[in-house]
Amino acid sequence: MDIQNQKRKSKFSFSRAPTNENSGALQQLKNRFKGQMLQLINKNENKDQDKQIQEFLIRINVELEEEDLKYIKFDMSLYHENYIDGEILGEGCIGLVRSVTRKQDGCEFACKIVKTDAEEIVKNMILEFKNLKKLSHPHIVAMKELFIQWNEGFQSTGTVLVIMEKVKGREMFEVIQKQKNYSEWTARILFEQILVAIKYMHDNYCCHRDLKPNNILCAEDGTSIKITDFNVSKFTDGYKEFTNLNDHGKIEMWTYTGTVAFSAPEIFSGGLYNEQVDLWSAGVILYVMLSGELPFNSDYLNDLIDQISKCKYQMVGPIWDQISPQAKDLIQNLLQLDPLQRLTPEQALDHPWIKNVQNKSEIPRDTLEKNMARFLNQKTNNESELSAKKIKQICFLFGAGEIWKRHSLKNSSVSKISEDLKKFKSIDISTYKKEIQVTKDQNSNHVYHIDYPFSDDSD
């Protein structure tokens, strides 16, 4: 019995040992082979992905340097590995902005999320990010990273995520309206920061072209600002070799763009203009900061442009009686018809109103609050009205008048019309909302001029 058990035991021990060794060796061989195959597959997939990315960039005519690829990434999984989604901060015409937290250090950022099937939108976002990434200034919202996912197919779709600095504040006028103590002294602090930011932009060959209160974010305590929204800005370095940095006209442009009430008169002339348009906008902003009213205002676009072109404005009334002569002088020197006579950022920063200590007595609150409230309400209503007008213009421009007629009879929402228009010829109206312009010919009846923003590469 013992011998048999011993034999069984020996037999059992003898038969299992080589089996385990062979099995282990075979498994190691399989694992090694599997690893090599996965590595080869991943390598080929990466090559295919790199090839697709390069083809996509060539198609949209965008060049990325090695430095750009540190911040512009075509792998959306990297975003999910590094960031945690937070609350939605706001929603615009082509996307939304949410708060995100970086896992590495817990820092909070803002993330602009855009989903689109238009390659042109992706191209513009890449170019805007590249340009803004070069700017580093305490009064300009900083760009951090850009994530892109583009899915090729019969109906190509894309998602773009822009990680940027999160500003804890609101639009400047909303903050000013709620300030308990607001004086020329407070206004001077904020306006000086605006001028410093403009000087920095111009020194770095950037013209904002759409400076207005909506695009200036202010800290809740009302002590600091950040300039944002560079959608229609012009970046160039073409004049570095030929122009002195202190000269006017470093940046030449001719495209009609921006917000009419804050636009300089030369923009409407149809000819060349330069970065001095930002100083005109600054003059309009200061006017509103001190009074809560626009210097140029009309219910009709042609009348508004006429006022601006003739520089027809006044500084009269109870609230202006309380404003210092130095402040009025600065506004007058910024709102000069001739760009060559208009103050430069350096000259504005050297103006007595900026250099000297200002009166801390409050600007009359009742009048200012009423004006600010009316201004903010008017801004909201006008934007909604203009949006509908723009859509109507685009509908007829692209031969989609029936879409407008059908929806306008039903009193459809703007978003519904936009949705149908996008299906018709894949037109995304959000890219044209600010820039398309239709005006009536002053010399001929039934003749209209359409200023439509085709590619602005040459500008």
From TrEMBL:
Region: Disordered, residue numbers: 1-21
Domain called Protein kinase: residue spans: 83-354
GO biological process: mitotic DNA damage checkpoint signaling
GO MF annotation terms: ATP binding; protein serine/threonine kinase activity
InterPro entries: Kinase-like_dom_sf, Prot_kinase_dom, Ser/Thr_kinase_AS
Annotated Basic residues bias: 1-11
Lineage: superkingdom: Eukaryota
Pfam families in UniProt: Pkinase
SMART domains: S_TKc (SM00220)
GO cellular component, one term: nucleus
PANTHER family linked: SERINE/THREONINE-PROTEIN KINASE
Name of the protein in question: Protein kinase domain-containing protein
Organism encoding this protein: Paramecium tetraurelia
